[in-house]
Design brief:
The protein is α/β, with parallel strands linked by helices and 275 residues long. β5 and β6 form a beta hairpin.
Length: 275
């Protein structure tokens, strides 16, 4: 979103100040350390309450400093825009059939726009594929509040803040994990497929499923594009976990992953999910 002429954009965006789809208010409790993340994630009674708490977390000092520095200094091409500059909550269907797992928001993508995989070239490729395969209402995802919707799908990131060099530490991943665990517990009732965008997301998925009490494969399956593993659900159905190369700019420019390859993965996920 662009600031009025002569107005200094207020970045990062304070919670409850009118940003589209902001789930938080000024009264939303803030996690300041790992123990608070565990407590606030475990006690969120609804998905709306959980995503609000995710969106104001300050538990990882390095990530907080970086995401807010980027939001203040901005990229030159976005100098007139407000940057979200906060953690990116999960978004999409509340009872998804397909869950899409990413690594973390991009500094000038989700960290700017307030929605994961939105406003950067990775997101352009990803949402175009989701639209072609019937999982998104629009071909593009520009910013929060642009009318985009996920159809029978939900998108989350293993780490909710943009990390320096796109590389969160193990400690940051583990600190953030309770947000993901709590979200999975709230949305997993109808879930049948998980698409892991990249090796980091693939690795984060197995402890998530084990924490949920599911019987995960041992040894854990190796990651690869199109790699699949079936995990039994308690209702007698199965959860299909699919590996997918990350639609990073490097991967798409070199042809390591193409639109057709992404489409194949998402169609497979839809098929197993009965969509």
């Amino acid at each position: 979103m662009t600031a009025a002429a002569g107005e200094q954009p207020d970045s990062p965006v304070p919670p409850g100040t009118g940003w589209p789809d902001d789930p938080a208010t000024a009264a939303t409790p803030v996690a300041e350390d790992a123990a608070a993340v565990r407590r606030l994630a475990a006690t969120a009674g609804t998905l709306a309450e959980l995503t609000a708490r995710q969106s104001v977390c300050r538990a990882c000092p390095r990530l907080v400093e970086w995401r807010e520095q980027v939001a203040r200094e901005k990229r030159r091409s976005f100098a007139s825009e407000r940057y979200w500059g906060r953690p990116i909550p999960g978004w999409g269907a509340e009872r998804p059939r397909v869950l899409i797992m990413g690594l973390a928001p991009a500094a000038h993508g989700g960290n700017r726009t307030g929605r994961v995989f939105t406003g950067d070239r990775s997101g352009d490729v990803l949402y175009a594929s989701l639209w072609r395969t019937g999982l998104a209402a629009q071909e593009t995802s520009i910013t929060a509040g642009d009318g985009q919707r996920l159809l029978g799908a939900r998108m989350v990131a293993a780490v909710r803040c943009a990390p320096p060099q796109n590389k969160p530490t193990v400690s940051e991943r583990d600190t953030c994990a309770p947000w993901l665990t709590a979200e999975f517990a709230l949305v997993a009732g109808d879930l049948r497929s998980i698409v892991c965008l990249g090796h980091f997301a693939w690795q984060a998925t197995w402890p998530l499923l084990a924490e949920a009490g599911l019987d995960v494969p041992r040894p854990r399956p190796a990651f690869g594009h199109g790699a699949e593993a079936l995990v039994p659900r308690r209702d007698g159905e199965s959860l299909l976990v699919i590996g997918c190369y990350h639609p990073s700019q490097q991967n798409t420019f070199t042809g390591r992953v193409t639109g057709v390859m992404l489409d194949d993965v998402f169609r497979r996920a839809r098929l197993h999910a009965g969509m």
